[in-house]
């Protein structure tokens, strides 16, 4: 099931903009090309250390990726509740004691 559709599209567009193949860009970041392919096809996200390297490149479209990732995460959260039939749980009401933030 595809969970990261929009962020995968941003990653693929970025690679195409650089004019690199999946194998070339994966080698640049020290990973297997199949993993990069999976990220582009929205099957997974890139590992956090790799994503930081990609994200910090000057020419990476950070705003587009941030927006896409937020939308993907929100959508996957909604799908989770729809598929399980769970209702969203609210945090229990608590009483605070003084300035210590101790819940009773």
Report the count of strand segments.
2
What would CATH call the architecture?
A: Orthogonal Bundle
CATH topology: 434 Repressor (Amino-terminal Domain)
Provide the gyration radius in Å.
19 Å
- The global form is globular
Strand order of the largest sheet: 1-2
- Helical residues, percent: 55-70%
Q: H/E element string?
A: HHHHHEE
Helix-strand layout with pairing:
Layout: H1 5-18, H2 22-28, H3 33-40, H4 48-55, H5 62-84, E1 96-97, E2 102-103
Antiparallel strand pairs: 1-2
Overview of the structural elements:
There is one protein chain. With 104 residues, the chain is mainly α. The protein has a single domain (5-84), classed as lambda repressor-like DNA-binding domains (434 Repressor (Amino-terminal Domain), Orthogonal Bundle), CATH 1.10.260.40. 58% of the residues lie in helices and 4% in strands. Strands 1-2 form a two-stranded antiparallel sheet. The model is unreliable at 96-104 (pLDDT under 50).
Give the structure's gist in a few sentences:
With 104 residues, the chain is mainly alpha-helical. The chain has a single domain (5-84), classed as 434 Repressor (Amino-terminal Domain) (Orthogonal Bundle). The chain has five helices and two strands.
């Amino acid at each position: 099931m595809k969970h990261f559709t929009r962020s995968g599209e941003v990653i693929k567009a970025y690679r195409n903009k650089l004019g690199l193949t999946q194998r070339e860009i994966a080698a640049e970041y020290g990973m297997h090309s199949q993993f990069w392919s999976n990220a582009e096809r929205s099957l997974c996200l890139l590992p956090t250390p790799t994503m930081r390297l990609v994200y910090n490149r000057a020419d990476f479209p950070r705003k587009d990726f941030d927006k896409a990732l937020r939308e993907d995460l929100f959508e996957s959260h909604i799908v989770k509740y729809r598929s399980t039939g769970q209702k969203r749980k609210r945090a229990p009401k608590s009483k605070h004691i003084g300035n210590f933030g101790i819940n009773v």
